[in-house]
Amino acid sequence: MGQPEQRAEGAGPFTTRLTWRPPGGGTAVWESRLARRRGLIAVHPPGAPARRHASADAVAITRLRRLNAIAATAFVIGGALFAAGAAVAQFGGGDATTCASIYFAGGLFFNTGGYVSLLQVVNAPRHVPGGEGRLVTRRWRWWSYEPMRVDWLSASALFAGTLVFGVNLLDSFLQGLNVQQVNRLIWTPDVIGCVLFLISGHLAFVEICHTRLPCVRRRSLGWWITAVNQLGSVLFMVSALAAYTRPATGSLVNADIADWGTLTGALCFSVGGVLQYLERP
Fold first, then answer.
1. Domain residue limits at 22
2. Rg (CA), the chain
3. How many contiguous H segments (helices) and E segments (strands) does the chain have?
4. Counted domains in the chain
5. Are β-strands 41-44 and 135-136 bridged in parallel, bridged antiparallel, or unpaired?
6. Which of 48, 56, 196, 254 is exposed most, by the fewest CB atoms within 10 A?
7. Rounded CA gap, 270 and 262, in Å?
8. What does the pLDDT look like over 110-126, one tens digit per residue?
9. Are residues 123 and 32 in the same domain?
10. Are residues 20 and 106 part of one domain?
């Protein structure tokens, strides 16, 4: 039997990195994002430099590649459509219904990307504690409840955010709303969705940095993907705050900031999707 893990790292109740000594000597290091997104564990044989072992089996690797490609494509297209909707709103060329339709189409792709991101977590290969440094593949699942996993919480918050955005986008088709109804039915879900996106991004940083506070890891592709997406979430929040309708005047706080925040934030998610293609298992 293998020896137990020597060191567990993470933030609070979440374990994001494990280091243990395999029975054959040396050390093995499991990192949450590296294992679930690329199917890898770092193995340090005795007296040799670190090596990356593609420890997951062929079934897991094929599964991860397909999910990664679907999620990346969904965010690229969804971000592009959101940017297009904001551009139409800012520069003209269409009425409110046209903008709402473009946003709604983009929202469907965001819904898809959010759910597939959750499937990546649910069906990721799991490590074998104290083993030789390998991952095992479990049966396919469409859902799970694992609140003690920071990656599951991050993906769940992201998916929930896309669903709340969907409520906002559907309500934007309603006509004849007064100011209070606009703020309650359209603006409030928008802000809630942005908050969930920000929470998801922060938890993603926790997973990568192994601490409660964000870090800078310029050589980590996963860090760049998380950072770009979190920037997009911040810009979405700026846009949402600027889109509040003043009850006294019936006008937005700042329509230009609202449009440009959505446009640039959406482009960030498209860039994040492109980078995600490179994080291929």
1. 5-53
2. 21
3. 8, 7
4. 2
5. unpaired
6. 48
7. 12
8. 999 999 999 999 998 88
9. no
10. no
